[in-house]
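Dear colleague,

Thank you for sharing your sequence with our group. We've completed the structure prediction you requested, and as agreed, I am returning the results in plain text so they can be pasted directly into your records. Please verify that the sequence below matches your submission; if there's any discrepancy, let me know and we will rerun it promptly.
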Amino acid sequence: MRALHSALFFCGLFMLAPIATAQHVAADSHSQSMAGTDLEQIHGFMRKTWHSSEHPLRLGPTHITGDFAVADWWHQGKGGRAVFKRSNQQWQLILCGGAGILQSTLWQQLGLTPSAAAEVVDALQHAEQSVSVADKALLDAFGATVTMQAEHARHPKSTSL
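Please find the predicted structure tokens below.
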């Protein structure tokens, strides 16, 4: 129960921050450049919002596919996965979770086809192969997937996604 409260506290920090968006600026038409710009925007937002010298935010693998991105994070002895969605040329934090982020059904509920959902999960698992066993355990231990929406800013909504 204490771990769930800690996880919800961290997600509460996400939700109490300004709307979790990062302005999307087109660097050029090359998709690799766009991915770099997207990564910089997502990581920059996370660092600006939660990193401090007293409580450093450590970021791990981040996978961007289409209009979705997943950033692994560790902060104050906890860990988890932050799911962003690009909408109207901005990245918005939509979910925070642990092992549930690696479920194909979650991605299907977000609108991906079953094959695209499986590809995202495979890519995430591949990206996390470089993560230590201890850090992976922190990512997976986050708990229930929490929907990060403006209307739930004060009361995170646990979801079965």
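Summary note from our side: The longest strand covers residues 78-87.

Kind regards,
the structure core
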